[in-house]
Specification:
The protein is mainly α and 164 residues long. Helix 1 runs antiparallel to helix 2, helix 1 runs antiparallel to helix 4 and helix 2 packs parallel to helix 4. The longest helix has 38 residues. The chain starts with a helix and ends with a helix.
């Protein structure tokens, strides 16, 4: 499979993740709005914060693969401004690989945390929402992010090797 085809497939995966993340953001906004409106009449939604916490945490993670594929992360280039273009590109490629590794470790730890929450049957206080759902969804988002970050790192190394 060529890099271009792989980029297309990973970008589609990232878009699907981002759409799911956007849906969770809309859910959080809807629950918050409904709770505030009901609260004005003395009957806020019980457990609204539990839903919002779960939705927002997972939504952020699900949006990161698309951010990675589009190169939309915040870039601090204060220290690399003085480097030649090839040196800055090399450092960027190495840092993308490090990011892929760190995100993979986070995905692994989230998966273990999700299993532990499932095994211990941990639930939220008011709605008794199982905590493992959030961990599992975040682990899937982190795994997708790690795949995208690893691809972008490889793509950066390949581009670095090509003559200018």
């Amino acid at each position: 499979m060529s890099l271009a085809a792989l980029r297309g497939a990973l970008t589609r995966l990232a878009v699907i993740c981002a759409l799911l993340g956007g849906a969770l953001l809309l859910l959080a906004v809807g629950v918050t709005t409904a709770s505030v409106l009901r609260g004005a009449f003395g009957t806020p939604i019980l457990g609204d914060s539990e839903i919002v916490e779960l939705a927002l945490g997972v939504a952020v993670v699900l949006c990161m693969p698309l951010c990675e594929m589009k190169g939309a992360h915040v870039l601090v280039d204060f220290f690399t401004q003085a480097l030649p273009a090839r040196g800055a590109a090399g450092l960027d490629a190495v840092m993308r690989a490090v990011a892929a590794l760190v995100v993979a470790i986070l995905a692994w730890r989230l998966a273990i945390g999700g299993y532990n929450m499932w095994d211990r049957e941990r639930d939220s206080m008011f709605l008794q929402l199982p905590f493992w759902w959030g961990y599992a969804a975040a682990a899937v988002g982190m795994a997708a992010w790690s795949l995208c970050a690893a691809f972008v790192a490889v793509e950066s190394f390949v581009r670095l090797r090509r003559p200018a």
